[in-house]
Write a structure and sequence with these properties.
Elements lengths: L4 E6 L5 H11 L5 E5 L1 H10 L4 H16 L2 E6 L5 H7 L7 E3 L2 H10 L2 E6 L2 H17 L5 E6 L3 H6 L3 H16 L4 E4 L8 H5 L9 E2 L2 H6 L11
Parallel strand pairs: 1-2, 1-3, 3-4, 5-6, 5-7, 7-8
Helix pairs in contact: 3-4, 5-6
GO molecular function: amino-acid racemase activity
Protein name: Asp/Glu/hydantoin racemase
Organism: Nonomuraea fuscirosea
Length: 226
């Protein structure tokens, strides 16, 4: 039987705490279960995209979540977002992508959508997510991808300041070409406040996935049991 708990699948351990705080805002009192598996991202990077065994493991995590009393599994890594979508066909538990609401909002925000990423394996999936959102909304949109070379490696090596600097440099360059900028990874949300100050690109919205992605949980039906 499924329950009222929320399950989250992370590939970056540091995201667990801030996303749990956001979940408490939209589902006060709900129990949050965290599954952390860095190898899902590592294997996706190594293969240039999610290999079949990553999909199988996402399905397994959905099963674990359901058995543990969760009513929803939120996949918080955009690099494996397309595996999350495929997993929906193999599990009864609702599987959500953290970046889907962001993609929908980006399409509503302008004709030229910039996608900023620090990983090539995230740039492609997020770009395609925006393109699919445009199709759903029957809107013609041009998507402009931009890869911040070296930023992910800086964050992974323990240099968040360099990560933020490289992401901001990318934002400044990309924002001059588009109507809205999408931050492809939840880990990039740290620079939203600075980027949104508008000193470099007045009026260009900056969208990140954590808040809108977690907000989906407010609309999930809390089913009894567990």
């Amino acid at each position: 039987m499924t329950g009222t708990a929320i399950a989250m699948l992370h590939t970056v351990p540091a995201l667990a705490a801030p996303l749990a705080e956001l979940a408490a805002e939209v589902r006060p009192g709900a129990r949050v279960l965290h599954f952390v598996d860095e190898s899902l991202l590592q294997d996706t990077i190594a293969h240039g995209g999610p290999p079949p065994h990553v999909l199988r493991r996402v399905v397994s995590y959905a099963s674990y979540a359901e058995e543990s009393g969760a009513g929803t599994l939120l996949v918080t890594c955009s690099s494996i977002g397309e595996a999350a979508e495929l997993a929906r066909s193999f599990t009864r538990l609702p599987v959500l992508r953290i970046d889907e609401p962001m993609a929908e909002e980006a399409v509503r925000s302008g004709a030229r959508v910039g996608v900023l990423a620090t990983l090539a394996t995230t740039l492609g999936p997020t770009t395609r997510a925006v393109q699919r959102a445009a199709v759903r909304q029957e809107a013609e949109r041009e998507v402009v991808p931009y890869l911040c070379e070296g930023a992910f490696e800086a964050l992974r090596s323990g240099d968040p300041a360099r990560h933020d600097r490289l992401v901001l440099d990318g934002f400044r360059e990309l924002s001059g070409e588009v109507d809205v900028v999408v931050l492809a990874q939840a880990s990039m949300a740290r620079i939203v406040a600075e980027a949104a100050q508008g000193h470099d690109a007045p009026g260009v919205p900056v969208l990140s996935s954590p808040r809108s992605g977690v907000a989906q949980l407010a609309g999930t039906s809390a089913r009894t049991g567990g």
